[in-house]
Amino acid sequence: MTKLIRADMIRMFRTRAMHLMMLLFAGLMILEGWIASGEDVESEGHVFSSIIFGMGSMLLPMFVSIGICLIIGAEFNNGGIRNKMTVGHTRQGIYGSWLICSFVITLVMEAVLIVSSLAAGFIFGKNIDISDISVKALVINILVMTVCTLSFTALIVLFCTLFTGYKSVAVAFIYNEALMMIFSLMGELFKSSEGYKLASRFFIQAQMKFYTAIEVTDSPWLTVLCSGSLGIAATIAGIVSFRNQDMK
Amino acid sequence: MEYILKTNGLCKQYKSFKALNGLTMNVPKGSIYGFIGKNGAGKTTLIRLICGLQFPTEGSFEIYGTKNTDAGICSARRRIGAVVETPSIFPEMTAQENLKHQFRIIGIPSFEKVDELLELVGLADTGKKKAKDFSLGMRQRLGIAIALCGDPDFLILDEPINGLDPQGIIEVRELILKLNRENNITVLISSHILDELSKLATHYGFIDKGAVVREMSAQALIDACRKCIMLTVSDTEAAVKALEKSGFNSEYKLLENNRIDLYAQPNITELVHAFDEQGCELITVKEHDETLEGFFISLVGGDSHD
Predict the structure, then answer these.
(1) Partner-chain residue, chosen from B76, B90, B156, that has the shortest CB–CB distance to A78
(2) Is A87 within 8 Å of B106 when comparing Cβ atoms?
(3) Separation between Cα atoms, residue A190 and residue A196, nearest integer Å
(4) Contact (CB, 8 A) for A68 and A238
(5) Which of A93, A127, B154, B226 is close enough to A1 for a disulfide, judged by CB 3.0 to 4.6 Å?
């Protein structure tokens, strides 16, 4: 599998679409920083946190899913997967390589988010009081967000194998937007419901509004457990489905 | 005879459609095996099964003696190179980048052979041109180069001349012949263009409705399609004497049921006299003049699956 990971990584980081997406993502984060600097963001502590846990956490799943679907979709569309299978790579190996590469895309995108948010914070947030920012909250919340995003990544890889080719981009986009809408509406209706609170721990789209740079999100370990188990379940389902799938 | 690929009653069913229906075939080592059938006959389905892209619903196959259900099937596949349907290439990459990517997938650390392969398929001068700007023939040759990256002993080509111009067809044909003769690579080549396959193949498998209806060597096909006079006689021994006496020394073939195929244009009156002199009756005389296409149609029927 190491051969596949190496080959996939090199292809991934040489794909122009990935470079453009990273640039666009960073640009949007800086733009958001500029917009946020003109608003009253004192309640959120600092313009930096409003970017990273505001617009950033909303856009992160979208950019991650598009990036992954483009990389994996190209294998189905251009027949790259045939070249792997014909030379004797196992389906588990191919899936595993995609998953690891997708995790790397996710972490790189998150790094882009953090670095560009930090840059935007320094550029546009110089005169805002940052005394109420908690480094502990910031670190823990970023870690929880990372686990949730990786879990989301595992789901996207599953989608890429179920809806082969570039149609997975559309499926992932609809899934992401639908979940955001559902949790936004449900949040208004079932704010105090325990069931809603538990369900929201599984999905990054529901989690993102709970993060701030001031305090640690509620029961972070429970969120990690719920979200992580969803990611593991998606991976097992993906491998089982991919092992039995007919390719063209 | 040693066989690279053996299939045994292979079936593949998609919902209610049976794409393969008990397909049994054998690809001899060192051969160019022409796999012929109409569109939809099951050629690509078989190739997909061999390459591990799909699974048979019934039956089995062996690659280098390894059964498809054995754990070692993935290792056996490492000796295969294949171009299934369209060439599997990344359009945003150059020819060289595509080959390097395949080298990484296989795990070959050095790219020394990349230029050699590009030279072999005639793409050495493509430079920074991306694969998306290649002609169909160039893509096809790049696909073959990718299939050759792992130094395979067995090359599977699915309709490699589809859509190519005459020059492209000649280039691909010469490449296949070179690989077979110089590198001793066994080739399984599927096509529905019989005339083109006849310039390459050493063995044939005719497929129809998901099953092989006939396997034969190129020589057997040539014999089957050779223009001849089919004679039915009362006594073959006497007939042979008559033929030898008439000067048709080795231009005939003795068949079962007192049949003789005569590959010459005799004067029938003289032939009848010669047979009569030997006490042999000439029961029937038929002219046999079958083209390759005619032979194919007689095997698989004339209705189209398109």
Answers:
(1) B90
(2) yes
(3) 6
(4) no
(5) A93
Q: How far is A11 from chain B (nearest CA, A)?
A: 7
Unique residue bearing structure tokens 């949007």? A28
Interface of B with A in 143-182 (CB under 8 A): 146-147, 149-150, 156
Q: Provide the 8-state DSSP code for A208.
A: G
In degrees, rounded to 5, the angle at the alpha carbon of residue A149 between the alpha carbons of residues A143 and A153 is 140
Q: Which amino acid is at A156?
A: I
Cite the residue boundaries of each domain of chain B with CATH code 3.40.50.300: 3-222
Q: How far apart are CA B129 and CA A10, in angstroms?
A: 20
- Dihedral pair phi/psi, residue B189, rounded to 5°: -125, 120
Q: Which two tokens stand for residue A178?
A: 């639908």
B3-222 CATH fold = Rossmann fold (3.40.50)
Helix (H), strand (E) counts: chain B: 11, 14
- Write down the ipTM of this complex: 0.81
Give the strand order in the sheet containing B252-255.
B252-255, B259-262, B228-233, B282-288
What lies within 8 Å, CB to CB, of A131 at 6+ separation is none
Cα–Cα distance for residue pair A219/A221, rounded to 1 Å: 6
Name the residue facing A88 among B14, B53, B75 (closest C-beta): B75
Q: Where are the domains of chain A?
A: 2-243
Tens digit of pLDDT at every position of chain A (248 positions): 888 999 999 988 888 888 898 999 888 888 877 777 766 555 445 555 666 666 777 788 888 888 888 889 888 888 888 899 888 888 999 999 999 999 999 999 889 888 888 787 777 766 666 666 777 877 888 888 889 889 999 999 999 898 887 788 888 888 888 888 888 787 777 777 777 778 788 887 777 777 776 677 778 888 889 989 999 999 999 999 998 888 88
pTM of the model: 0.80
For B228-288, give the CATH class.
alpha beta
Q: Which of residues 226-245 of A touch B (CB under 8 A)?
A: 244
Helix spans in chain A (H)? 2-14, 16-37, 47-50, 56-78, 80-86, 91-124, 135-162, 167-189, 194-200, 204-207, 220-243
Strand residues in chain B grouped as ranges (E): 3-14, 17-28, 32-37, 58-63, 66-67, 80-83, 154-158, 186-191, 203-208, 211-217, 228-233, 252-255, 259-262, 282-288
